[in-house]
Design goal:
The chain is mainly alpha-helical. It contains nine helices and two strands. 63% of the residues lie in helices and 4% in strands. Strand 1, helix 2 and strand 2 form a beta-alpha-beta unit. Helix 4 packs antiparallel against helix 5.
């Protein structure tokens, strides 16, 4: 399901209907995975405050992947500093995978110290610093939603919604991104979502 929050006055009821139609039982334990956005997280907590809420591993790795690209460029400009940066970045990912936020933040701080070194000449240095700051803030703000992903993965539990993101790109991104000449209004996008999700769910005939 999908909706534009500004255009949907009953998001809680909509989400509840989806869960019930999926077979949810009264008082059943629910696990929510999200990208950390306040609006969706608040909706989840409002419905099931006792449920488990997890920061989606997919959204963590997407941010780390971008930093890896910066690391490759840094290695090209300054091999020693670049390799050290990459090493701290790999450690950051490892600590986050095991739910150790404190150690991960220490590694991010080490990455930042390297990025602001005046002796390093790297054309994307300012962008790297900015992205590192944003990544650090993202992890800090969502630290309470970070779990031991490795343990959950070993037990066969879902830790990522990457498969959902591909659908979102198909349904939304191609029309809503700024590069498109034609964009939708909020209400137009809301109606588009209702139609496209009905098609994907094979419910359009209803």
């Amino acid at each position: 399901f999908g909706f534009i929050q500004k255009c949907d006055t009953h998001p809680k009821r909509r989400l509840m209907n989806v869960l019930v139609n999926q077979g949810m039982q009264p008082n059943q334990q629910i696990t929510f995975l999200s990208d950390g956005a306040d609006n969706m997280r608040e909706l989840q907590w409002m419905m099931y405050p006792e449920s488990e809420h997890i920061l989606d591993w997919f959204h963590i790795t997407v941010r780390i992947t971008v930093l890896v690209q910066f690391a490759k460029g840094l290695i090209h400009s300054d091999p020693k500093s670049g390799e050290e940066f990459k090493k701290h970045l790999e450690s950051t990912k490892w600590y986050l995978w095991h739910g150790n936020v404190e150690k991960a933040l220490d590694q991010i701080e080490d990455c930042y110290c390297i990025s602001i070194d005046d002796d390093i000449e790297y054309r994307n240095k300012k962008k790297l610093e900015k992205y590192l700051e944003e990544f650090q803030t993202y992890i800090e703000n969502n630290s309470h939603l970070i779990t031991n992903y490795g343990e959950k993965w070993r037990y066969g539990e879902t830790i990522s919604t990457a498969f959902v993101e591909s659908t979102i790109n198909e349904v939304v991104a191609k029309r809503m991104v700024k590069k498109q000449q034609m964009q939708w209004t909020h209400i137009g996008a809301h109606y588009l979502l209702q139609t496209r999700t009905a098609v994907l769910n094979d419910e359009l005939h209803e």
